[in-house]
Specification:
about 5% strand, mainly alpha, 3-stranded antiparallel sheet, 24 helices, two-stranded antiparallel ribbon, about 550 residues
Length: about 550
Amino acid sequence: MHLRSFAVTAALTAFLSVFTVNSPCAAQSFVDVAAEVDRLINEETQPSDIKPCDDETFIRRVYLDVVGQLPSLDDILVFGLEDHPDKRRFLLEFVLDDQDYGTNWANYWRDVITYRRTNDQSQLGVLAFQQYLAESLNENKPWDEIARDLITASGDIRENGETGLIAAQQGRPEETVSEISRIFMGIQIQCAQCHDHPTDQWTRQQFHELAAFFPRVAMRPQMDPRTFLVYAIDRTPRNRRQNNNNRFIGTLEHNMPNLENPAEEGPVITPKFFMNDKEVVIGTTDASRRSTLADWVTDSNNQWFAKALTNRMWSELVGEGFCEPVDDLGPDREVTAPEAFDYLAGQFAASGYDLKWLIATIMSTESYQRESRDRRNYDEVPFQANVPQPLRSDQLFDSLLNVFELEEKPPTSNAQGPNPFNLRNVPRFGFANVFGYDPNNLREEVSTSIPQALAMMNSTFINQQLNAAPNSVLGKLLREVPDNQQAVKELYLRVLARRPNRSELNTSLTYIRQVGDRSEAFADLIWALINTTEFKTRK
């Protein structure tokens, strides 16, 4: 992507007038909503030390957040020179229209859903799952439709990506509904599986009433090709195995376990949704049960559906949610700036659960566009700054591809389709094994490790790029920019999306003189920059 339109203000103004009308973000005035969110937050938290970020920080932040990649040198330079008052809004709309938006956020939601999988065999369908998510996000499919797809899915997990959530939990009713509640409503009702919830109002009875929507779902293994089918039964199958843990065959109804005598079958439970106390009768078909549950979860009267996504996205983009952890909301939880939270979630629902609208709105707020600061102490005023976030493994890998101008080879496929178990030697998947983390966790719990440091310092994939060969990034830089000072500046822009400060510039030039070999010195510099915390962090 190159934002050369920034160079001519007249052309930019004309483009804005056309693009905004046709943009998916135009369904609601996200700028006006962002301004009201700012007003409510400032009124509720009364921040006093507010500083906006500079253009270089903003464009790098936006690119990493939206498309998971670094901006190009042209993007950075032209954006910094442009003085149009709406250039930040234009950048948001422009980048949200890029196809890499879907890829980036598909990777995020893949991790949200699959990091807590109960069986690695579900990874057979992960590529189909990512493809479904990427296509849905790029089409700007409303969030309630995506939720419905995942709740009601069936079919081959390697062909139908919509099965990703159910497959991740092996079709087990208790685990599946726990994830549906956690992901789509931010409520961890699984804590009530064996006893009434210790810190919320939810009861054990309510948990099993929710599980009663899913007993008929199962995962059937297929051997040629190796895969699994998410399917459902609506009549008692022949030759049923008497094994309550066997999820290759479903059960017609859900029995709540008898805690006093586990050997005895517990009572049959009627499917009932704990948010509205509505139920479906015993004997209802699987399709009707899950469709009804999807209706009730995504209903506009269920405030937690909009709130869960709003809180999660705010936390991901601003660095601190209205409530933390992002998947532990509910009526018994306290939140920061509750009026602003309620207003933003309500407007998200009114937009038709438009994900691009929500992202553009949050990115238009002062909270998002403020300078970066370390995570605050609990006694400090919230939302005074944007909190740095560690890059996800895909973002880090894509940033390296950007720096070295590399094209990624697509994963190889066998005759029956892609098999993730054959991808362990692919660099992207190797990075995921070392740098991946569960995005549901608190970011302060995501720490660096010795294997990560060793991977960045000793990776063959990286070290192969640290040479001045004619066609390499370093070779072209040294050939096209003979002045060392200018070359150092360009290197900083390429790797960190900013210019070096005076101290960094002087240190770099001194080092180049000391080494004597220009190629070796710049190879060391680029190696040092990609190993900085700044490179591995979204500021």
